[in-house]
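Re: weekly structure request thread

Next one in the queue (207 aa):
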Amino acid sequence: MSKNLFRVAFFALASLALTGGSASAHPHVWITMKAEVIHAPDGTATAVRHAWTFDEMFSVFATQGIETKKKGEFTREELMPLARTNVESLKEFDYFTLAKASGKNADFADPVDYHLVFKDSALTLYFTLPFKTPVKAQDLVIEVYDPSYFVDFTMDEKDPVALVGAPKQCKLTALRPGDPTSGQPPSQMNPSNWGQSFANRILVKCP
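Done, posted below.
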């Protein structure tokens, strides 16, 4: 992997936020997110599948220097080194994804099925986070956010979240930052974890 790819990799840039102090208290990269909560036939949740679309400015910056057969077009294979760098770097940040099952932390294994797609001047990173142990819980809460708020995550307007293979009785709720039912009123904002105030929350309730 070239040094240039590593330098422009998104999560290498995001690591700067950890040392940037107050200068990092506003976003530098914007992501429109979609998510799917994957279930097994026995009703357990087994993984979260992400699709993160980066803003156009970052997408153009990140793809500079990548050799392509067609100018301005990138195949999945040409983008794979950058995708690999991103998902490997994500581990340091817990993949910006936290989960709790019935109030207890539900840990993720390393991501699988990852790749990047470049379309309409924007990069989209696809990856799947398997739970280390399949989750059987009445209440599953998944949060997506950057604690430093270097990265701003916004749920897709039309299809932000979906359940895949879940029992019919399960109910899904997608909560955007600022939603009065999000569970994070302004009085509870934590200066040391500012980004949590802007967390996107996925709630899955099953019988």
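Residues 151 and 187 are 22 Å apart (CA to CA). The chain has four helices and eleven strands.
Next request, please.
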